[in-house]
Amino acid sequence: MTSSPYLAPIEDSLSTFKDNIFSGKVLFCTGGGSGICKGMTRAIMRHGANAAIIGRNIDRLTETSKELSEQTGKTCIPIRADVRQPQTLQNAVRRTIEKFGRIDFVICGAAGNFMSPISSLSENAFRTVVEIDTLGTYNTVKATIPHVRDAKGAYIHVSTTLHHRGTPYQIHVSAAKAGVDAMSNVIAVEEGPHGVRSNVLAPGFTSGTEGMRLMTGKTKVKADGFSTPLGRFTEIQDVANAAVFLFSPAACYITGQIIPVDGGAEHLRGDLFPYPSSVIDPSSVRKLLKGKM
Ligand code: COA
């Protein structure tokens, strides 16, 4: 999985946290059907929580919820909702409460992405990503906040490091995720007095995800020393471990923070994109952007 065994992320079964730290807790996760959010949900469930996973593709959600329930011995329910439609989210919250009686933790993870230069990005394409990522986060927080206040719980928003610099072909995602980061800070300040915490996890280029496939045409790509200081790309498990920490009592005084999980990649000159040709085949980028430049 990685270039060095010393750098491999700790699997859930070897977690440094006790198995039952989230016993009796409930996670509400948008985008939980696949990728990073699925991995975070599994890790939170492995530490004792039940979960509701929310997304647009009910077949995928159903399959994932079965898999996660079997793997963890906890209960995961799939709920169809579009984060752009507040009523569907309110319905998802209602069903979660009917099933579990509470919501302690929320992961705002639903996101959309594709590569496009601004010169060929339509207004609707820009709006679509901002609506899924930014408005979707707002809608998720609005729908869940009364329950998260009751539980004195916490939010994790899934962002990125792309917008920390000017990343080409990502103007829509950069705008959307900058909004997510800003909202998390406001939520931390406004909701702190109610006992609610809000933090952002900003994964780097992550193996095994749709984002990796979109950028490279493959889900697994080998990193080199020029692409991340730690010599490999982010693994889903890295982000899952960070989520366990952020929801755990060990992080009870951490709020309003944006935490990259990128092996230090954002501090490298020339990081992120364009990636070195050993990582991204320039011809595959040209193919993805064909006719758009
Ligand atoms: N390049 C440029 N524009 C694109 C595009 C691409 N690759 N993909 C979608 N768009 C544009 C569409 O053309 C449309 O704009 P238009 O009406 O001006 O033509 C607009 O975005 C909305 O597209 P649509 O497919 O109707 O939206 P959707 O709500 O069904 O899905 C996404 C939007 C972003 C979720 C979709 O592109 C997608 O499924 N992406 C892959 C999954 C993903 O992003 N996972 C997360 C990875 S981090």
UniProtKB/TrEMBL annotation:
<dbReference type="GO" id="GO:0009062">
    <property type="term" value="P:fatty acid catabolic process"/>
</dbReference>
<dbReference type="GO" id="GO:0008670">
    <property type="term" value="F:2,4-dienoyl-CoA reductase (NADPH) activity"/>
</dbReference>
<keyword id="KW-0521">NADP</keyword>
<keyword id="KW-0560">Oxidoreductase</keyword>
<dbReference type="InterPro" id="IPR002347">
    <property type="entry name" value="SDR_fam"/>
</dbReference>
<dbReference type="InterPro" id="IPR045017">
    <property type="entry name" value="DECR2-like"/>
</dbReference>
<dbReference type="InterPro" id="IPR036291">
    <property type="entry name" value="NAD(P)-bd_dom_sf"/>
</dbReference>
<dbReference type="Pfam" id="PF13561">
    <property type="entry name" value="adh_short_C2"/>
</dbReference>
<dbReference type="GO" id="GO:0005777">
    <property type="term" value="C:peroxisome"/>
</dbReference>
<protein>
    <recommendedName>
        <fullName>2,4-dienoyl-CoA reductase [(3E)-enoyl-CoA-producing]</fullName>
        <ecNumber>1.3.1.124</ecNumber>
    </recommendedName>
</protein>
